[in-house]
Design goal:
53% of the residues lie in helices and 5% in strands. It is mainly α. It has one domain. It binds calcium ion (3 copies). The site of one calcium ion has 7 residues, from β3.
Length: 151
């Protein structure tokens, strides 16, 4: 793989995450919501979170064996690191929420049985704990209110 295609694939992966470095000005979290809101109603429901996490799992389970192992996690971690670089916009609003979001994607966070890899069940089973991190107002959906500065 050339250096360019490696970078391109990480970027493609960041797009798959729906949290690319392109941060729309204005509404905190808008870019994330646009990418994760499958129904187009402006909020990301719990069902949409589960569906999108399922998509992400498929994206990073490169050999499609039903687990994201430590090696596959390297690409996943790189994609998220690339994404985080772009999140320090003019005012930094939403940065903390994006950090929580990224932390909730890590191997350590999702590997419930601690066997060093994350199964699809583990990844989707972590949704409740992930929502606790990112759903600040506790309405069981992700909206711009969850990205604003802490009150
Ligand atoms: Ca795999
Ligand atoms: Ca595991
Ligand atoms: Ca919320």
């Amino acid at each position: 793989m050339t250096r360019f295609s490696a970078v391109a694939s990480v970027f493609a992966a960041a797009i798959a995450l729906g949290i690319t470095p392109v941060q729309a000005a204005g509404v905190p979290g808008q870019h994330f919501i646009e990418n994760w809101d499958l129904s187009g109603d402006g909020i990301v429901s719990l069902a949409e979170v589960i569906e999108r996490r399922g998509d992400i799992f498929l994206t990073f389970d490169a050999d499609e064996n039903g687990f994201i192992d430590a090696q596959e996690y390297v690409a996943f971690d790189e994609a998220r690191a690339e994404d985080m670089k772009g999140q320090g916009g003019a005012n930094g609003h939403g940065k903390g929420a994006m950090k929580n979001m990224s932390e909730g994607m890590t191997l350590a966070f999702n590997d419930a049985n601690q066997d060093g890899q994350v199964s699809r069940d583990e990844f989707l089973g972590a949704v409740d704990r992930w929502m606790e991190l990112v759903d600040r107002d506790g309405d069981n959906a992700i909206t711009p209110a969850d990205f604003g500065p802490k009150k």
